[in-house]
Amino acid sequence: MRAAWLILIAFAVAAFALPDRAGAQDPVAATITGPTAVAPSSTHPYEITVTGGPAADGGTFEINYALQGDNIRGGDPQIPRTLANREGRFTVNVTLPEVEGAVQLFVRAKSSNETANTTTETRLSIDVFRPIELRAFIRNHGAAAALNVTVFFYVDGRGVGNMTIGRIEAGGQAEANVTYIPVDLTPGRHALKVTADLDGDGTIEPAAGELLQSDFFYKTERSSVPAVLGTITVFILVVLVFVLLAIRRQRREQ
Questions:
Q1: CA-CA to 207 of 20 to 30 Å: which in 9, 42, 115, 157?
Q2: pLDDT along the chain (254 residues), means of 10
Q3: Which domains does the chain have, with CATH numbers?
Q4: Which of 210, 232, 227 is nearest to 137 (CA)?
Q5: Does residue 226 have a cis peptide bond before it, meaning omega lies within 30 degrees of 0?
Q6: Cα dihedral 51→52→58→63 (10° resolution)
Q7: CB neighbours of 205 closer than 8 A, spacing ≥ 6?
């Protein structure tokens, strides 16, 4: 009988020590995902996810979202908009300002049920810059077609994009181009490099006909949209490389 009482007391103590998991609740949290470097006046979807809080037990999630920044002219929304549902997942379309600079997508999220509600805030920083387009015209002077030629573009040593050309016929020409958002690219001179690793071994060998061409361009304050800062013409499978930078001609005309 004494042993039975001891077992009963131990069970009661253990049960008392267990946390009340039914009443436990994760704090409300909100996350924003979407592009963080975009062109002026462009529109992009952003995913907003809200979790935790009272709504996790069958309540309602609600968000208020708007653009914030020193100059958000042309941006939308400037006045907060409200959305609500029970899932906590939202997709919103945001139009960025017509001027360059840094802005924020601000979100205030609320998680609520019939008896309680909690809120949280989060922000996503977005850089708005005019896009730069770079082009490489590649002519194949070899006797056979060049297949799956991947052309890589670098600005100031940093990769800014690549494009794969499926086939360039012998004696034919193809164009590779990339457009990127030049975050923090200051006005002035910048190094430009184009490479093509034809055999895919990770090494550029000009003697074997692979491309490695470097030059430079200037970014000016009076860039257009999109700003075509450099147009490069290169030849593969030959030693001689001819380069044409349209930006130099543009500078002489200004």
A1: 157
A2: 44 43 76 95 97 94 97 96 98 95 96 95 94 82 81 89 88 85 83 77 62 71 50 40 34 46
A3: 25-128 (2.60.40.1930), 132-253 (2.60.40.10)
A4: 232
A5: yes
A6: -50
A7: none
Q: Looking at the DSSP assignment, which residues form a beta bridge with residue 30?
A: 50
Instruction: Write the CB contacts of 170 (distance below 8 Å, at least 6 apart in sequence).
Output: 140, 142, 143, 144, 145
What gap in Å lies between CA 248 and CA 253, rounded to an integer? 9
Q: What is the pLDDT of residue 14?
A: 41
Give first-to-last CA distance, the chain, whole Å.
Answer: 103
227 close to 197: Cβ distance less than 8 angstroms: no
Is-contact 126 38, C-beta < 8 A?
A: yes
Using alpha carbons, list the distances in angstroms from residue 248 to 50, 218, 224: 50, 8, 15
